[in-house]
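It is worth pausing here to work through a concrete case rather than discussing structure prediction in the abstract. The textbook approach is simple: state the sequence, then state the predicted structure, then interpret. We follow exactly that order.
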Amino acid sequence: MSSVPLNAPFASRLLHWFDQHGRSGLPWQHPRTPYRVWLSEIMLQQTQVAAVIPYFERFVARFPNLATLAAADSDEVMRHWAGLGYYARARNLHAAARQIVAEHSGVFPAKFDAIVALKGVGRSTAAAILAQAFDTPAAILDGNVKRVLCRWAGIEGYPGEAAVNAKLWALAESLLPEARAADYVQAQMDLGATLCTARNPACERCPLAADCAAHRSQRTAELPTRKPRRERPHREAWLILASDADGRVLLEQRPAAGIWGGLWCPPVIALGEDRTRLLRTRFGIALMDEDAGETIAHQFTHFDLSLHPLRARAEWLADSIAEPTPTAWHYPQALREGVVALPTPVTRYFAQDAAPTDLLGHRRVASPRRRKPSSPH
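Step two, the predicted structure:
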């Protein structure tokens, strides 16, 4: 396949392969500015390229540079991120943009220590940004690279363990070429994404196969060593779909910490909690004409969640709010049109094709006399 000798250095073979087969048309590569590289690296954390591309393009269309992002309202940032998941990334991205404005006069830093100090940026991400945005040699160690190195060097043990991780970092740094830092980083990621895949790797086309320990010993299915299996936790909660007399649905802005941080969502109350008390103290409402819907199953990285929709009419209670929560009321149609950033399973719920304009489908009642909801959307 290649004119590069089979015993050539690791990086030389990888770069030669990249010149022929690497991905060179990704949107953040044209133009490859520090801002666009940084944004792409944050979006690509635990998310595949194909899923990221449309979100990246929509995001940079609205926030074309760092200054625009730093000046934006947090709700708008979250709305343009909604659906991509791992929402702490969006909050950290926004905070880091403001951090760069405050600490670096709005110019993206070009030194590793300054990049890794940014909110939401770890060692590997900082190195990837440094290499791709400034063409400075730096070792990365994302999931793809860990898999390639574990197989090529025959490294045993789960890569999440400290000792194994340290061994991988040392190996990654020892293999760095002196030039073409940006291409080398992309080549490593591309090899892991397209050939050295988790299942059924295409070893016959790999430029590293000649001295790959896993390939020679037919252990590609065993390396890297898998994480010790643990039973996935399962949680259940009510999704409270309370509407007012006009058919608008109650939403709360979720706390920054925890799942769906910063997004707007109907109240989620764990099964077993005192639902009546929480609705009274947080929102000043009681539920009338309750109607349970079909369970919504959703998977997070570390646990599974079953949401039980509970459609109901909201009745205002006098002097009952003890723990006020940021709230808003929106028509279901406005939620289907993306007026606010919603969690993915909630977006899917409101996007049901068969859903009528009044999604909750309960009878109209007189407007409450106490506490007027926010303006309709």
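Step three, interpretation. The longest strand covers residues 304-316. The longest helix spans residues 88-104.
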